[in-house]
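Many introductory courses stop at the sequence. We go one step further.
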Amino acid sequence: MNKRERVTAAFRGQETDHVPVCMWQHVPPEYWGDDDKFAEIQARFLEDTDVDFMKLSGDKYFGWPSPVLEHIEKADDLKRVKRLGPDDPFLRGQIERTKKVVKALGGACPAIYLVFAPLSCIRLKIGYPKMMQFIRENPEAMKQACRTVAEDLKLLVRGIVEEAGADGIFYSVQNGEQNRFTYEEYREWVTPSDLEVLNYANTISDMNAIHFCAWEEEPNRLSVWEDYKAPVVSWSRFFDIMDIQEARRHFGCTVWGGFDNRPGTFLYTASREEIEKETRNLIAQGGKSGYILGSDCSIRNEMPEERIRWVVETARQI
């Protein structure tokens, strides 16, 4: 199998010759202003690590650029958030840059692009304290703003896949920590806009992955995502479900993960021999059907990329 055949089979839950590997890093901020350099960095990461597919970065385009959100002080103002529209630089910039990244990859492997769910787009602009304050003070206003953002995100999804040439999206859903919302609150306030984008993306591509993001030292309430469906789930082995087989049963699809991404943990500190041994152990647990080897979330840039390549090279031997 070549990389595309291997990854396509994994997304479909079919047996692969080797377990695919994909880990990713953010692009450093000093390259965000130069799309050509940004694309070069992503292509170099592929060359240096030889991962089976690329999770493309959305760096620079975090935080929804609505003027209303710039200095918002009351929840009711969320009702004034308007659509950006198809020609807005925030959407066009991502599509045009992704075109360059896909071209730089030269068809060497599949690529999926990071898209945050609507509430996260707003939170990345106004911060957690205001997000929580406003959604509790006026949940209807926040829901309305999220619906507006969702409509623009659907334009982004279509452009990223059909125009820029990415194979699908890496859809990051957040805010599911057990101490943040009750099940009922999340399902009423957050789920509708989450699914508005996800369900649309699934009509555009069959190569989408959902990322159940966990990074605040608090496990997610996984039940809030019980009806979020995509071919692949990227889950947090070290926060939510430890066992690969359990994760596959729980999510009912191919699962992607295995290593802790946090600085100072095994992948950053272990010897090559130890990493090779753990790679073999994870593949023995996951098998060659319905499993992609990766990490809980992004790998910090200070970790040498050769460590990812050690995982890739070991996986190719099994």
